[in-house]
Amino acid sequence: MTANLTLSPAPDALDLAALLCSRVCHDLISPVGAIVNGLEVLDDNPKAEDRDFALDLIRKSAKTASARLQFCRLAFGAAGSAGAQIDLGDAQAMAKGHIEDGKITLTWNLPRLLLPKNRVKLLLNMLVIAQQTIPRGGTMTIDPIGDGETMSFRVTAAGLNARVQQNIADQLSSSSSAVDAHAVQPYYTRLLAQACGLRVTLAPEGEAVIVTAS
Fold first, then answer.
1. pLDDT tens digit sequence for 77-92
2. Which of 33, 71, 77, 121 is the most exposed place for a label (fewest CB within 10 A)?
């Protein structure tokens, strides 16, 4: 017997914008909060060692916040006018700044060329999904599928306890329409893939998870 499932309606444009804003704020609140904490320590006229600690915290947190802002601007933002193209070299720099946090390293095997902005946005969102499959860290390798302006991508995420999260897989496959702030990023990835005439899939492969756009 097949159960009757009632799926929540997909978010409209206003809800989607609000959910994406919530996602960006979630990514930024931690480093910005750390900057505030560091400034509060400085305001208390600390000892020399406490002052050095606070300045180091502010410096590292500001760098993290800047990297996340640049990444989010490209991955979720307008990134130029309709029909604009984006340099994969710029995307690589932003991806490394955002994702390489001491636990994850990137191997970028893509050529440096201009691609339509939605394909580059799709790639960056695929990296976010791949990152979530290796919560304890590891390596992420980005390879091209095809070439030229129709190039698509394969991301291999390898690490201890790498796993496919079913809720993300469901959003990518369109089998779930319920979207909240936690699910909006894979949902947005699906929309980007559809705009490019592609489909994103997640699949385990040994001790790795493969994220493919094809």
1. 876 556 688 999 999 9
2. 33
